[in-house]
Amino acid sequence: MSTVQEITVYIFILKHFKHVQALAPLRGSKAILAFQAQVTSPTMKLAVVAFLLLLCFLSCHHSAYSGEKKLFTSIISFGDSYADTGNLARWEDPVLESLNLRSPPYGETFFGHPSGRATNGRIVLDFIDVPSWGWIYSLKRTIRPADALGLPFVPPVLAKGQNFSMGVNLAVAGAPALNLTYLQGQNITLEIPINSSLNDQLRWFEKMKPSLCSNKTPGSSDCFGESLFIMGQFGGNDYINILINSNMTLEQARSYVPEIVNTISNGVERLIHHGAKYIVVADIIPVGCLPITLAMRPSSNAADYDRYGCLKSFNAGLSQHQNALLRRRVEALRERYPHAKIAFAEHYRPVVAFLQDPDRLGFNSSTTLVSCCGGGGPYNQNWEAPCGKPGATACAAPSKAIYWDDVHLTESAYSYIAQGWLHGPYADPPILHLVN
Questions:
Q1: Pairing mode of beta strands 373-374, 393-394
Q2: I want to staple 169 with a disulfide (CB 3.0 to 4.6 A). Which of 50, 60, 77, 262 is the partner?
Q3: Where does the chain cross the membrane (predicted)?
Q4: Residue ranges of the chain with pLDDT lower than 50?
Q5: Whole-model pTM?
Q6: Residue 40 burial (CB count, 10 A)
Q7: Which pLDDT score is estimated for 348?
Q8: Distance CA 154, CA 124 (A)
C-alpha cells in the first residue's frame, strides 16, 4: 500500500471514527455495543460499510505481507524498566506487594489497564514488533508493518502458558547492571532488592536455551542465527540507587561506570558465544534530565543546569561517560566477532531531541521535564504519592508529555525512539539494515 493510500485511510479513520483508539482496549460484546452507539445516521452507516470493505482489503494485504519471510524469527530482550513488558509485575516477593506499576493509570493509553509496563502504553520493544493490525495504532507515528518486524508482542519470561518460539523478554523493571549482592556489599540501597541483574537475566536465558532451540533442525548449531537480541538499557537503576536511594555523591556513582560497561560488554560477548548473530546494544537516557534526579538532587546554582533545564554534571559524568565507553566497546566487539552484526542504539540523543524542539515533535514545550503522572511537587515528583498510588493523577494529554512518571518516558516518546532504531538516525546501523 502506498504512502498516499495510507494517509487516505488514516484521514478516513480520523474523520468518521474519532474514537477508534478508545475502543481498542474493549473486547467482545463491549466493543460491539460501543461501536454501535456511534453508528446513528444513514451516512454513518454507509461509511461503516465502506470502512469494513476497506478493512477486508487491508486484511488481505496484511496476510500477504505476513507470508513473506521476516527479517528475524524471534526477539530475545534483556534490560530494565525501559524494556520490561511484565516481569516485575509478575514477580512474587513480599517486598513487591505494593508495586505501583500494577495499578492504574499505568497502561491506560493503549491497553486500557496496567500491563506491567512502566508507562502509559507501549514501549520501544512493542513498536519494533508491531503485531497484526498494530499498524492502525502506529500510523500516527509512521511506523508501518513493512517497516517493523511483524512479530507478536514479546512475552515476559514469567508469563505462564506463553509460547516463546517467537521471542522472550527477560528484562525486569528496576534491574541493575551489577549484581544485587555486590551492590549491597558496597553499602548501596536498592529500591527493588531482588536478583534481576544483567547476569541474572543471562542465567535465565541459558537455563531456557534448550527449550528455545527445541523446534530447530536436529543437530543444527545455528539456533539463534535468525533471532534479534536486544541488550539494554542497563545502568540507569545502578545510578539512581547510588544517588537517590543511597544518597552518595556523583563522583561515587561515576566510579562504577567502567564496571557497568564491562558487565554489558561481557554480556554481549556471552550471547555471541551462545550463537547470537544480530544484537542491538542500547545506551542510557540522560540521567540529569530525569524528573526524579531534578527533584531529589537540585542545585541552587543556575550554572549547573543546561539550556533545557537538565543537570549538566549528571549527564556528562554518568550518561555521556557510559555511552561513550559503551560505544567504543561495541566497536571492539565488532572487530573481534566480524560474523556478528551489532547495532548501537540510542536513548540519549532522542530525549535531547525532544527537549530541543518539543513543539515540532508533538510535545508540550512548557512541561518537557515534568512527569505526566505524579502527586505534585517540583517536576510533579512526590515520594509520598508516586504514580499509581493514592494522591497521584495523570495529566490530561499523555501524548504531549515526554515523561510519564519520574523515571520513564511516555508511549509517544517510545514510539519516536523506536522509529529511530528501525530506520535511523538513532541506531548504527538501523535495525532494518542489520541483515544486509
A1: antiparallel
A2: 77
A3: 46-65
A4: 1-35, 57-67, 131-147
A5: 0.84
A6: 9
A7: 99
A8: 11
**Residue 77 known to be catalytic:** no
Measured between alpha carbons, how far is 366 from 352 in angstroms, rounded to an integer? 15
What pLDDT score does 20 carry? 44
* Distance separating alpha carbons of residues 409 and 363, to the nearest angstrom: 12
**pLDDT at position 52:** 55
Of 6, 49, 311, the C-alpha closest to 143 is 6
Residue 433 annotated among the catalytic residues of the structure: no
357-to-138, 360, 361, 362, 363 alpha-carbon distances in Å: 22, 6, 7, 9, 8
Report pLDDT for 138. Answer: 44
Task: Taking the CA atoms of 360, 361, 366 and 369 in sequence, report the sign of the dihedral they define.
Answer: negative
Give me the pLDDT at residue 309, please.
99
Active site residue 80: no
Alpha carbons 98 and 136: distance in angstroms, whole number: 35
Nearest alpha-carbon partner for 77 in 178, 242, 190, 205: 205
Residue 6: what pLDDT? 43
- Which of 62, 74, 80, 81 is catalytic? The answer is 81
Q: Are strands 167-169 and 74-78 parallel, antiparallel or unpaired?
A: parallel
In CATH terms, 72-347+414-433 corresponds, of 1.10.10, 1.20.272, 3.40.50, 3.60.21, to 3.40.50
Q: What is the pLDDT of residue 225?
A: 93
CB 109 within 8 A of CB 399: yes
Catalytic pick from 405, 406, 412, 415?
405
Helical axes 411-423 vs 348-356, angle rounded to 10°: 120
Residue matched to cell numbers 543437530: 219
Q: How far is CA 305 from CA 36, 350, 364, 408, in A?
A: 53, 19, 20, 21
pLDDT of 436 reads 75
- Which is catalytic among the residues 80, 371, 408, 412? 408
Distance CA 154, CA 169 (A): 6
Q: What pLDDT does residue 220 have?
A: 57
pLDDT in tens, 338-389: 999 999 999 999 999 999 999 999 999 999 999 999 999 999 999 999 999 9
Edge-first strand order for the sheet with 427-428 is 167-169, 74-78, 227-231, 278-282, 341-345, 427-428
| Grid coordinates belonging to 341 | 552484526
Residue-wise DSSP of 249-311: -HHHHHTTHHHHHHHHHHHHHHHHHTT--EEEEE----GGGSHHHHHHS--S-GGGB-TTS-B
For residue 46, the model assigns a pLDDT of 62
Spell out the domain ranges in the chain: 3-64, 72-347+414-433
